[in-house]
Amino acid sequence: MSRKKAGKGKNANSSPTTGIPTGNQKGETGKSTAGTGSVVQANGMVHPSRPSLSNSSEFYDIAFKVMLVGDSGVGKTCLLVRFKDGAFLAGSFISTVGIDFRNKVMNIDRLKVKLQIWDTAGQERFRSVTHAYYRDANALLLLYDVTNRTSFDNIKAWLTEIHDYAQQDVVLMLLGNKADATQQRVVKREDGERLAKEFGVPYMETSAKSGLNVELSFTAVAQELKHRSMKEPNEPKFKLQDYVNKEMKSAGCAC
Ligand SMILES: Nc1nc2c(ncn2[C@@H]2O[C@H](COP(=O)(O)OP(=O)(O)OP(=O)(O)O)[C@@H](O)[C@H]2O)c(=O)[nH]1
Ligand SMILES: [Mg+2]
């Protein structure tokens, strides 16, 4: 399989119709503004329509678009920063404006899988911006905050929105974030599990602060997307929740 080069740099442009950075292919991080260039195929793979302008040596085999959604303050940006940079954004909370993205290339079963991760603004006033990007998302990570009951209660409304705007076969995973905050917790893990079961969505708790399950949440969706796009005829169906449970068990996670 031929290898494509992952973009690097800042402020790549994007198209609201594809949701994929376009024009300036330098962007490993970027803000959505405007531009033309990349093509998203129906199978979710992204093929840059022009060579990378960057000096990046990071090549990839397949690429997918993953979107982070959920109420403002649940920790979407922190989860992404933890995954990308291994750091936690402590201190004052800076709410995302509009939409933002970062790229990360992961090794999944000897394949280089590029995730283009879109960090949406949870604030209501940016909802129409988010709507424009749903249709190109291959996977969605839907977050609530275990210390914020309203963010949990709003999950049903988010699922309705996802049903209305996202692709029918979008890979979806529910994440109860801030699992480290045991003193402030108001949503039990069992409540999250019950809700996820009710809607047939894979689920786990995460912490952008401690790093709990952050890598696993992105690896799990990357695995699912990769299995879907490379599936051999007789291969058994990949089960995301089973994968997550197995990985947590082998990591000795009591969560
Ligand atoms: N204790 C704890 N705090 C967290 C965690 N993740 C995020 N926070 C804090 O929660 C606040 C909001 O985090 P953000 O990542 O900015 O929230 P967001 O979902 O991106 O919010 P919007 O951009 O407004 O949609 C910040 O003060 C973070 O420091 C976590 O896992 N544990
Ligand atoms: Mg944010």
How would you describe the overall organization of this protein?
- Keywords: GTP-binding, Hydrolase, Lipoprotein, Magnesium, Metal-binding, Nucleotide-binding, Prenylation, Protein transport, Transport.
- One of its GO terms (molecular function) is G protein activity.
- This protein is an alpha/beta fold and 255 residues long.
- It is 29% helix and 24% strand.
- The protein contains 7 helices and 13 strands.
- The strands form 4 sheets. It has a 7-stranded mixed β-sheet with strand order 4-9-10-8-11-12-13, sandwiched between helices. The chain has a two-stranded antiparallel ribbon with strand order 1-7. It has a two-stranded antiparallel ribbon with strand order 2-3.
- β9 and β10 form a beta hairpin.
- α6 crosses α7.
- The protein is globular, with a radius of gyration of 17 Å.
- It starts with a strand and ends in a 5-residue tail after the last helix.
- The structure holds guanosine-5'-triphosphate and magnesium ion (MG).
- Magnesium ion binds next to α1.
- Magnesium ion (MG) binds next to α1.
Main beta sheet: 7 strands, mixed
> How many helical elements?
7
Side-by-side strand order of the widest sheet: 4-9-10-8-11-12-13
Distinct bound molecules: guanosine-5'-triphosphate, magnesium ion
* Annotation, overall tally of beta strands: 13
Kindly provide the radius of gyration, computed on alpha-carbon positions and rounded to a whole number of angstroms.
17 Å
SSE run: EEEEEEEEHEEHEHHEHEHH
Which percent band covers the strand fraction? 15-25%
Q: Low-confidence runs (pLDDT<50, min 5 residues)? A: 7-27, 32-56
Distance between the termini: 38 Å
**Helical/strand content category:** alpha/beta
Mean pLDDT rating: 82
* Principal-axis shape: globular
**What level of helicity do the residues show?**
25-40%
